[in-house]
Structure formats: C-alpha cells, structure tokens
Predict the 3D structure of the following.
Amino acid sequence: MTFKHRLPNAGLRPYKHEKDRARNDDDEFSYSDYEQLLSDETYCRLAELRWLAAELETELAHDDILADSDVHDAIFDAVANTDAPIAEAVDEYVAGRMAAHRSGVYEG
C-alpha cells in the first residue's frame, strides 16, 4: 500500500498513543481527554504526521534497496533526527492543550 493510501485507511491507529494513555489507570490522562483531542484538528494532523513518520521509518528499516545508500540515511535523518522530533512535538502539544483545558483557559 502506498503512503497516499495509508492515512485514509489508518482508522484510529494514528491516535493509538493517546488512546493507550487513556486506558492506563496510572496516567492522569482520561478517556474524555482522549475524546476531546479527537475533536482538535491540530492534534489530529500532528498525530497523523507522527504515525506516517513512524510508518516511513519502519519501511526504511526493512527496505533492502535503500539499506546501504546515502538516500536512506538522508531520508531517515530528515524524519527521525530533526531539531523537533515529531513524536515529541505531539506529546508537547497534548500536554499543553490538556494543561490549558484543566486550568480553564481553553474552552474549545
């Protein structure tokens, strides 16, 4: 399946990290927090980008054609080793949004 088709067929997989957090009793993140995030377009786009980047990293790790090439290293570096890693950016966004919501600053 090409990347063009992966996201439309991904279902809820891009949001799995937060869904798993909501199911974890040890985390202060609740299922209602998760549901609220699903209505946030910025969160959804960031989570989708995080998922697509993870899919690309997985594919690059198993791609024998690019395994020893400079192209592989350049692509992997662009996705995994940027100044603001995508997964961390999503986590920061979620933490900021939840903190704002809990303090009453954000009512959206």
Q: What stands out?
A: The chain has a mean pLDDT of 81.
